Fold these 3 entries.
Entry 1:
Amino acid sequence: MEQKSAFESFELEVNSEIKGFLKETSKWAYFLSILGFVGIGLMVLGGLWLSFYTGMNQFGGDTAYGLGYSTGVGLVYVLLALIYFFPLLYLFKFAKNMKMALSSENNDNFKSAFLNLKSHYKFIGIFTIAIIGLYILILFGAVLGASFF
């Protein structure tokens, strides 16, 4: 006879107090995701403005340095906006599914909400690790470069 561990037989109780916490959390997640989407829109507009308007007007329109620099910075803004779109989408889906799960007491929506929350944090975690790795590489390159000069 196979014996179950204490964790396997443990069942979570989602009482009214916890439902209230989850409802408030979903409202804040919804607010932050909408605010994030607005920020992404502004980043894309700013990136496009940097890419086209600044490069063309500030440096006379045909200066290779001006066009290349502003275009590069503008594309970085657009790229960062694209990268940050996905965790915001996961956060938005969490909020939407949690709201539906709590109003209709639907377990599928409840499960989907936490799946999206997990994906949000997983994406942010992997992105954070990548950025820390990039910082280490930049620091290593700076120290290595400084030793040659």
Entry 2:
Amino acid sequence: MQPAAVPSLRTLSRNAYVRTLGSFLLWARSLTVRPDPVLLTLIARNQARQEFLLAWWRLALTCVPWLEDVAGTAMSPVWFEYVLMGYGLATLAATRSRRHTRLWRGLFASVDFVVLLFYTRIHLDTREPLEGVFAYVSLALVLMLINSLRLSLRVLWLNTAAILAGYLCFFHGLMHNPRVSVGAPMLILIASFLGSMIVRNQIRLLVESHSRGRLRRFLSSDVADELERRHLSFDQLAPAARQVTVLFVDIRGFTTLSERLAPEALVAFLNQFFGRITQAVFDQRGTVDKYIGDCVMALFGAPVDQPDDATRALRAALAMARSIADWNRELVARGELPLKVGIGLNTSTVVAGTVGTTHKLEYTVIGDGVNVASRVCALTKEHPYPILLTAATRALITEPHDFADLGETPIRGRDGAVRIYGVQA
């Protein structure tokens, strides 16, 4: 048997280099954002706002040579001072509308770098070379900070490469000095990595803010806070089987109502209806799954479950009925017809999680239990009770209520019958 070949030192070095490069590329990829159009729009809006604020600071920075001239320590000619101030005013005017594209950001970053080169060149003509190094690095660090606030890693890295190239061109004759050859480039590189951390943290805050806003559109504040404590979002909730109490509520006679109301009035009416229903759901730590025309679908037990989900679902249903009764008194006082609603509840094991494609995702539940809850809600048209619930939900309610046993009731589109209970509001 031939002995195993021992890799050479060159091979080991090459493999280590490849692994290091691969790790760096993975790290750089982790700094980017997934191409979510909404997030990209949000980031672009913040980039425009940041660029406008940076224009004010750039204007203040361009006034520094003029202030040095006033103090009697001028290091640049008068024409250069006016050029800088004119450039600061021009960028302020260009960013005022906040409609500039990323090409403008690249142009501003390029001109900032050119100004750095001119300022250093003029400084070297009047001062010692080491003072030029100090001036170059000081202004370069300011530019690194400016580029990090642009929320663009591409601009930051390209500008860093240009700054290092310009530094080597200006001070290649001083590389025998360790401060010039090691210290100053290291400061620029450290500033670049710190700037990338700033960009990453700012983008992460925007993403988390966007995710938090999405959560609070469907969940009560305490449930959304619970998901955030678990570092979860809707996108990360993989489909899984769980016991959920599903609640459906819709308006009786909505077709007639929509015929006698103008479209604008109908939308305002529905918004007020949805607001009352949603508040009742959120008060009991439930989740608003979706609005379906005049119907609202709510969940208790997903994405965060509680030991009394069924009880809280019934509390929410009773609160909805009371809220609608209060609203009806207002409607009758204005000479309008009162509103009638039907509420159906069912508890079963369903699949809960995010469903959809990369373009559109939503958190929902799927299963036979959802269809049963919808059919039970429709049965309120045939019974004098505004709230109906199945025996599965009735068995889990721990609070005393006057339940009317309506017996076994056939469910449209489903084999067999389901025992139904009625509750008066």
Entry 3:
Amino acid sequence: MIGYVTLGTNDYGRAAKFYDALLAEIGAKRLWESEQFVAWSTNPKRPALLIAKPFDGKPASVGNGVMVALAVDSPDKVDALHKKALELGGQDEGAPGPRGSGGFYAGYFRDLDGNKLNAFCMPQ
């Protein structure tokens, strides 16, 4: 159902480097690219994550209550993504671990522009 999610940035080059390194952890590569945006995905037929400077020319800002969740297939990949985000200068928003019931495992972080993300997996 979701085709892609776009996150605003005020430093296009810095954000692109952050996401190149972060999303490489889960095998995502640049899918689309222009002067206005960069999109990453693990497969052209799967949802993508984009960064862009806002179209209206105003500064990008973080949406209160907005979060992008990156689905992975193991707690090890959750741990690796969270660790990589922090190594790249992201901010910790909740260390990886089990949340609630049912085997949900997640780690939360913010990117260099303050956008909130998480990496999560569910039991198979």
